[in-house]
Amino acid sequence: MRRTLALLAVAGASMIALAFLIPLGIIVREIAHDRAMAEAERQASALVPVLAITVDPARLTHALASTGARDRIAVHLPGGGSAGTVRAPAQVVAAAGRLTRAVTAKTGTGYLLLRPVALDGDRTAVIEIFVPAGSLTRDVAASWAVLAGLAVVLVAGSVLVADRLGVRVVRSAQRLGRAAASLGAGDFSVRIEPTGPPELVAAGEAFNAMADRMVQLLAAEREMAADLSHRLRTPLTALRLSLDHLGPQAEQSRQALTRLESEVDKIITAARQPSRAVEFVSCDAAHVLRERLTFWSALAEDQQRPWELVGASEPVRVPVAATELSAVVDALLGNVFRHTPEGAAFAVTLHQGSGTVGVLIADAGPGIPDPEAALRRGASGSGSTGLGLDIARQLAEASGGTLRIDVSALGGARVQLWFRTDQRDRAPRAARRLVGNRWSRKNPAP
Q1: What is the DSSP letter of 99?
Q2: Nearest to residue 446, comparing CAs of 346, 331, 319, 296?
Q3: Is-contact 282 318, C-beta < 8 A?
Q4: 346-352: strand order across its sheet
Q5: Is 152:168 a contact under the CB 8 Å cutoff?
Q6: pTM above 0.70?
Q7: Residue, of 308 and 13, whose pLDDT is higher
Q8: N or C, where is the chain less crowded by C-beta within 10 Å?
């Protein structure tokens, strides 16, 4: 911004300087011209008393030498003679002799000043003064140089003043920008001291008010989430008591209930904790997939669903938390069991590429007619909450990746969950997501 302000000052000062300097330069040149012609008029006037006394060429030659004009002055006598260095043509001298005022004639090397002098007996003499072109522009270049120097000083001074004035604006804007970036990165304690012009002071005060309001809203949401999660404890307790009466055959259900209670506890704990800046975490995606497929395999056997897990034999790191990846995989596999008929096969593939890792879940169900609508948060055409795919998409975008839906080789839907494993552009994407600017779902997979 300081560079822009400096350029604006240069442009403005330059236009003002040119608006004044161009006319001043022309005036200086005209003054030099008029000064040279006035000097010639003075030299001619000095000879008028001499011509009134004598027209003798010998005496006039001595008088011409005393004028200081030397070889630039001449006198055309009434009888046709002359004294001095003659440059003017005879017809021009004759025309000037018929006038009662001085005239000028331009030559290739300067100007000729011809002044007629009336003598007794109706006689007329003409004084000729040659003004060289150099005399017409004497000291003009120096004057222009002085004017140019003044223009440079004016422009430099305006730039300096604009820069000093712009420092307040730039510093205030930079502080506001840094505070906004910190807030977008998750630091909700950041505040600024509004300074600078009134507009930036108002923007700083609005920023502080917005940050305070965000803290209040987030605190209220955390409390609400904790309260709602705590209310789940009562039906979970009742369900555990019911499962305890079923004996050993309900052991798998009790394990699932234990995991559900653990997830509820984590939600309550996370909701009670203050917001923190986004941290970089990672987990072994292969281990998470093996663990979750072990859990879902029992239900798959009950429903006679063929399934397979591909590519999860070796550790594969992804930049997300294990609990979040487990929740997303459970949500996607839950959709398979919920929205495809019993006996429909499914497959989970862990694909590792250059800088990317993909979790691909395919099924042999009816597919998803409108993938774009399915990715809209809260949109569902089968009676569910419509949050599972959106949560999975947000998890992928948190690492700089994306989520795509297409047709699987099994004939149904295939959900492609791609994660970026390099650090490139990770933090800016997380910050953009915090302020509500999500990536378009039309971005290509990494």
Answers
A1: S
A2: 319
A3: yes
A4: 307-310, 346-352, 356-363, 413-420, 402-407
A5: no
A6: no
A7: 308
A8: N
How far apart (Å, rounded) are the C-alpha atoms in residues 185 and 197? 27
Task: Report the relative pairing of strands 346-352 and 307-310 from DSSP bridges.
Answer: parallel
Interatomic CA distance for residues 422 and 354, integer angstroms: 9
What is the C-alpha separation between 243 and 257, in angstroms, rounded? 9
pLDDT in tens, 242-297: 777 777 767 777 777 777 777 767 666 665 565 554 456 889 999 999 999 998 89
The whole-number average pLDDT for the span 442-446 is 35
What does the pLDDT look like over 359-383, one tens digit per residue? Answer: 999 999 998 887 777 777 545 555 4
**How many residues would you count in the chain?**
446
Domains of the chain: residue spans and CATH: 2-138 (3.30.450), 278-446 (3.30.565.10)
Least Cα distance to 69 among 102, 97, 92, 47 occurs for 47
The pLDDT of residue 279 is 58
DSSP code, position 277: -
Q: Concatenate the DSSP letters of all residues of 124-164 into one string.
A: EEEEEEEEEHHHHTTTHHHHHHHHHHHHHHHHHHHHHHHHH
**Residue 313 in tokens:** 């034999």
Task: List 117's β-bridge partners, or say none.
Answer: 125
Chain center to CA of 322? 38
Angle (deg, nearest 10), helices 233-244 and 251-272: 160
In whole angstroms, give the CA distance from residue 443 to residue 62: 100
The mean predicted confidence, pLDDT, of the chain is 79
